[in-house]
């Protein structure tokens, strides 16, 4: 476990530049990439307590909790803001991190010319981000690091009407959250102030083209500590969306389109406007790669959802208010499917199912619960109300999700 006071207690200059996590598809709090296998987010004590007290049965369905990290906000002479993480910073301030060794993260986004305007995808330039401050050498601090984009895969962000007004070369939601977070932190800039972040497993690190569905689970979204105004606002959102009718609504999505080499992205505003039929169609789209429906994903996803459902039903007093559920798979097509499609005229396979060769087994998928800032249970020092029995709103959502996926067929 990576914990602030147990790591790198030596050189305080061994700091890490936090970069935006480009595969964040939902939520309002900025997720940052700490390293290839770890992400971090601003610490909320109730969520930290929840992760540290997780029942063993639930742990397999959550990201691995890796502890906390100390973070400083820095601004260079050009006004560029940076988030610098160091496991070895003292717990009261970050003045020990010498300013001249700070690594700055530009809010400015620089486009790099590419050979193909049709295939652009954001990939943070690896060289500057993998260097620690110590690696940069004395007097050679990186005062400005620009985010560069390289030829690979692009993405399209649809509006609530399904229109695609412009091509996006990255999933814009994560950068949107990151911008808002930096603005909030910089409004009262104190470079000596320490910020605590949670360290969590990067659950998409093993996927080449991570297709991610972020689902807000349950029929209730407000926590016990919500004000009357916030409570009324969340109740209305649930009543006017599939949270009320199905116990689940879409908060964000990105799905790799194999026919175009692009990610198709949708945000929470799209999800709020969906009817139950629209929700079913969105699930269908999440499983469709532009060439065919990935029916090979149905069995492993449903199997994991049923296993989670069995666990949730046994968790008496637990309430997972405002939490989300991620469904993840790799958008890279099985080689056999790609070869089959390559041998046929374009467009003639738009309504077929992808099938796995006999004996190859199921593709890798993940189902993970996240965002526990408002979760509560008997024994939590943050609980305001003690509940009896399992979270029936969450169970209702899971059961509907399983039923829809089990009934998913081509053309339905």
TrEMBL record:
Pfam families associated with the record: IPK
InterPro entries: IPK (IPR005522), IPK_sf (IPR038286)
EC number(s) per entry: 2.7.-.-
GO cellular component: cytoplasm; nucleus
Keywords: ATP-binding, Kinase, Nucleotide-binding, Transferase
GO BP annotations listed: inositol phosphate biosynthetic process; locomotion; phosphatidylinositol phosphate biosynthetic process
Keyword Zinc: no
UniProt GO MF annotations: ATP binding; inositol hexakisphosphate 6-kinase activity
Superkingdom per UniProt: Eukaryota
Family: Belongs to the inositol phosphokinase (IPK) family.
Protein's name in the database: Kinase
Organism whose genome encodes this protein: Chrysemys picta bellii
């Amino acid at each position: 476990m990576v914990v602030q006071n147990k790591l790198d207690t030596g050189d305080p200059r061994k700091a890490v530049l936090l970069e935006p996590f480009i595969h964040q598809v939902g939520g309002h709090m900025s997720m940052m990439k700490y390293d290839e296998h770890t992400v971090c987010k601003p610490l909320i004590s109730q969520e930290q307590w929840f992760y540290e007290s997780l029942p063993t049965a639930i742990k397999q369905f959550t990201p691995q909790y890796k502890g906390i990290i100390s973070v400083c906000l820095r601004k260079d002479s050009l006004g560029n803001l940076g988030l610098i993480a160091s496991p070895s910073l003292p717990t009261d301030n970050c003045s020990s991190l010498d300013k001249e060794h700070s690594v700055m993260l530009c809010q400015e986004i620089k486009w790099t010319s590419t050979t193909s305007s049709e295939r652009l995808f954001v990939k943070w330039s690896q060289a500057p981000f993998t260097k620690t401050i110590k690696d940069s050498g004395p007097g050679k601090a990186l005062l400005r690091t620009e985010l560069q984009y390289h030829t690979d895969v692009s993405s399209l962000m649809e509006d609530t009407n399904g229109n695609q007004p412009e091509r996006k070369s990255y999933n814009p939601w994560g950068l949107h959250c990151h911008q808002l977070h930096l603005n909030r932190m910089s409004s009262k800039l104190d470079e000596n102030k320490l910020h605590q972040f949670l360290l969590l497993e990067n659950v998409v690190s093993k996927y080449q083209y991570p297709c991610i569905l972020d689902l807000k689970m349950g029929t209730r979204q407000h926590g016990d500590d919500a004000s009357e105004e916030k409570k009324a606002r969340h109740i209305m959102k649930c009543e006017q969306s599939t949270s009320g009718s199905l116990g689940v609504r879409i908060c964000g999505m990105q799905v790799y389109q194999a026919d175009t080499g692009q990610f198709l992205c949708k945000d929470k505003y799209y999800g709020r406007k969906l009817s139950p039929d629209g929700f079913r169609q969105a699930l269908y789209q999440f499983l469709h790669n532009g060439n065919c429906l990935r029916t090979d994903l149905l069995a492993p996803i449903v199997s994991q959802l049923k296993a989670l459902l069995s666990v949730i039903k046994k968790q008496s007093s637990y309430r997972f208010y405002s939490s989300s559920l991620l469904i993840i798979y790799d958008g890279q097509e099985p080689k056999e499917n790609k070869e089959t499609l390559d041998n046929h005229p374009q467009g003639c396979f738009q309504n077929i199912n992808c099938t796995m060769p006999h004996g190859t087994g199921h593709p890798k998928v993940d189902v993970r619960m996240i965002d526990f800032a408002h979760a509560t249970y008997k024994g939590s020092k943050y609980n305001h109300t003690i509940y009896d029995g399992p979270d029936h709103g969450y169970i209702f959502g899971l059961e509907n999700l399983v039923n829809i996926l089990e009934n998913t067929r081509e053309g339905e």
